[in-house]
Amino acid sequence: MFDENEDFLEDEILNDDNNSNEESSGLYEHFNIKVDKNQEPLRIDKFLSIFRQNSSRNKISQTCRAGNVVVNGTVVKQNYRVKPGDEISVLLAHPPRTNVIIPQDIPINIVYEDADLIVVDKDAGMVVHPGFGNWDGTLVNALAFHFAKDPNYNSDLDRVGLVHRIDKDTSGLLVIAKTEYALSYLAKQFFDRKTRRLYWAFVWGNVQDDEGTITGHIGRHPKNRMQMYTYEDGSHGKHAVTHYKVLERFRYMTWIECKLETGRTHQIRAHMKHIGHTLFNDERYEGNIIMRGVNLPKYKQFVQNVFEVLPRHALHAHTLGFIHPTTKKEMYFESPMPKDMLDAAERWRKYLDNN
Predict the structure, then answer these.
(1) What pLDDT, in 10s, does the model give residues 307-319?
(2) Would you say the C-alpha torsion 317, 322, 325, 326 has a positive or negative sign?
(3) pTM surpassing 0.85?
């Protein structure tokens, strides 16, 4: 279900320098937290269940009952209310170390929120979920901080409820569940392809047809393991279908709208490259070189200037529609084109007017 598409500001996770054999073998983990100065008062069991991914509130409560949660040198119970500047020490049994989520005070554009879900318009450059090489500074870190600031937030989720993802350098709309029921309900809509999602992209070249459909299995590239590849014969990968429509032509670049029937990793990027129209400035797929145009110094300099204005692959999650898990009413959101793509398009228009 992953799409095209990863102190609370001062929080630190510190390994105990005197780890025992049990801890080093993964039987338990000892970590410390310094609470941000902007933290609202919040019960410590709620605070830690948001902070610690894949640890239920019941597990946290039992940890408190066992005397394994210490605040400012004193053992506390689960109803202790966390305050700014508190120093918390936790001994937690069997927690997967890689699932620690550090809440961070990172600005995010929230376009809608209720008790069940939150819709975010993500900026390009932000990883959605922590992972290798990106353990913090992600959307999930920002959401954990946002939830922890709300003393009324009460979720049965053991983790931030990602329903789908978009790539780091893709901008646009994401929905995140706040309860286990909402996560399951929304996930089924994505699985059943009942959501309404449109992407905007700039691609190299003048796309021949005004509308079209690309069908081809998507799997790992046979030689470049950082890329996905379209296997038209279906010999590898998973079935994928992308519908596209031309919105504007810039002679050597085209603005298209894409509708996904499936949600494979890098689906738009791999499918467009397959038909010879790599995303503009997509470094991973070699779209950051001049692929169309004329061999003139003036043109080459122009393209380099546009790359500087739009320093990432030109892909934006423009719309998102789904049925609300509680009200059962349709929700629909649109994200305007981000400034970097707007500026790039305007430069192309001016170039065409003058050439």
Answers:
(1) 999 999 999 999 9
(2) positive
(3) no
